[in-house]
Write a structure and sequence with these properties.
Length: about 475
């Protein structure tokens, strides 16, 4: 371990020395690093607009290096093995990363000129993720006044910690704005989510009873911050913000005693109208319109309402690519209705044998999906399926990996966690399969009968009523276990 670290430091010194000689014009930046336990053969660098800038191949030591000429200061992103993270790059930076894919975000460390701002940015990402996991508990334990005070104290403490950091680290105004936004919008998002978690849908009418200044922060919101569009905290805020403000419209048009329904058509069309009126940036607007429409379509059982929602969406989006995506989604969902045969997709097993899903299925089967990039999910889903296997021993279970990296990385993960090799598969063509099966949420599972006809196209094994759903299918003889 000590030798490996010294080797990396020597690599870093050599590369940064080369960078210093090559960047006298001051318009370049260096980006390089080392990947421990790689899950692919390259690192993909994306520019500030989210487009692929370069594909950086790993060498025999799993290292890469790249000089970006004529660089503009910006929030760039890099992807490896399906995982993605951000890096602030500015002229004259020489940033090196080191990470272990087994704990991608937690192990990520930056070194070199420009490292301090990036290490602090990662620190805020991890803190946001940790706090987000506690949000339901916070919301259930604290009434509105308490929650308001709690968020203010937490927010102010995070900003104070950042102020102290800036006193020691000389970072640019641009880097300051990115890190501060990541702190701000995480706290703003928690306040937007709060009423849904605290009141629940049945009592959401009480959103009108929140403290008068509960949403004062909205005066500072930027709807068109294109430089933040890839940051999760900002996207999360916007997503729930429009859910929230549309509730006000819902109760303008319905009696206050009306039961709120998050999948009610007029409520969802109101969200699209609000996005259209408040957001001018095309990328941000189109993404919000796409995801809000997709959420509705995926949960609606009325074709007339889907058509109505799509008409509203089409009148507002400017993305032809998104329109094609939505039309494919609608077609896929139509083909996934109960009673229909599962689409003819090919799977590959651990021994590299190819077969269609219908060829493999010979009894009622539950198919669940996982990605090597979501460690907590794939560990929990496999553990949950073990419980279900014990409760429903005559049921079949198929574990399907959705990654598109080389098979050796899939097999390494399976062996590392000792998954049941008889039930493990991966798609021959992951992109096509995910679109065909409308899998954009890893919590989705599909239940089919012994002939691979669909019984339930979208269940969730982690939902509190899943066992009851299964038992009801058996009682109604839709699911026949012999």
């Amino acid at each position: 371990m000590k030798f490996r670290l010294l080797s990396f430091l020597a690599f870093f010194v050599a590369l940064t020395s080369c960078f210093d000689k090559a960047s006298d014009d001051g318009d370049s930046a260096f980006f390089g690093g080392e990947i421990i336990n790689p899950k692919g053969e390259n690192v993909i660098l994306y520019n500030r607009k989210g487009d692929v800038a370069d594909t950086l191949l790993l060498d025999a030591q799993n290292r890469f290096s790249h000089t970006i000429k004529n660089i503009n200061a910006g929030l760039y992103s890099f992807r490896h093995g399906g995982e993605i993270q951000f890096v602030i790059l500015e002229p004259k930076d020489s940033v090196m990363i080191r990470l272990n894919t087994y704990d991608f975000d937690e192990s990520l460390v930056f070194t070199g000129k420009g490292a301090k701002k990036n290490n602090y940015l990662i620190k805020t990402f991890l803190n946001n993720e940790n706090e987000s996991q506690k949000l339901v508990k916070y919301s259930q334990q604290k009434d509105p006044e308490e929650f308001d005070a709690f968020i203010k104290v937490r927010h102010n403490q995070e900003l104070e910690n950042f102020r102290r950091f800036k006193e020691k680290a000389n970072i640019s105004d641009y880097a300051t704005s990115i890190i501060k936004a990541n702190i701000d919008y995480h706290n703003y998002a928690d306040k937007e989510i709060y009423p849904f978690a605290y009141y629940g849908e049945n009592k959401l009418v009480h959103i009108k009873d929140l403290p008068e200044n509960f949403y004062d922060f909205r005066n500072n919101v930027a709807y068109n911050a294109s430089e933040l569009s890839e940051i999760f905290a900002y996207s999360r805020f916007l997503f729930f913000h429009f859910d929230n403000i549309a509730v006000t419209d819902f109760y303008k048009n319905n009696e206050f005693h009306s039961k709120f329904n998050r999948y009610e058509l007029s409520y969802n069309k109101s969200k699209l109208a609000l996005v259209d009126s408040l957001v001018k940036d095309k990328t941000i607007k189109n993404n919000l319109l796409k995801y809000k429409t997709r959420e509705f379509i995926n949960n609606s059982k009325s074709q007339d309402e889907i058509n109505d929602m799509m008409a509203s969406y089409l009148s507002k989006t400017t993305s032809e690519e998104d329109i094609k995506y939505m039309n494919k989604l609608i077609a896929s969902l139509d083909n996934l209705k109960p009673g229909k045969g599962l689409p003819d997709l090919k799977l590959i097993d651990i021994n590299n044998n190819e077969a269609t899903i219908a060829d493999i299925v010979d009894k009622p089967t539950l198919m669940y999906f996982w990605s090597a990039n979501t460690k907590t999910h794939y560990k929990n889903s496999h553990y949950r399926v073990k419980e279900l296997q014990a409760k429903f021993p005559k049921m079949g279970f198929m574990s399907i990996n959705i990654n598109d990296n080389p098979e050796k990385f899939w097999k390494e993960t399976i062996k590392q966690y000792n998954f049941n090799l008889d039930n493990e598969y991966r798609f021959e063509n992951p992109k096509e399969a995910l679109e065909t099966l409308a899998v954009y949420d890893l919590y989705k599972v599909i239940i089919v009968d012994k002939d691979a006809n669909i019984i339930h196209p979208k269940a969730n094994i982690f939902s509190k009523d899943f066992d009851r759903v299964m038992e009801n299918l058996i009682i109604r003889k839709e699911l026949v276990l012999k």
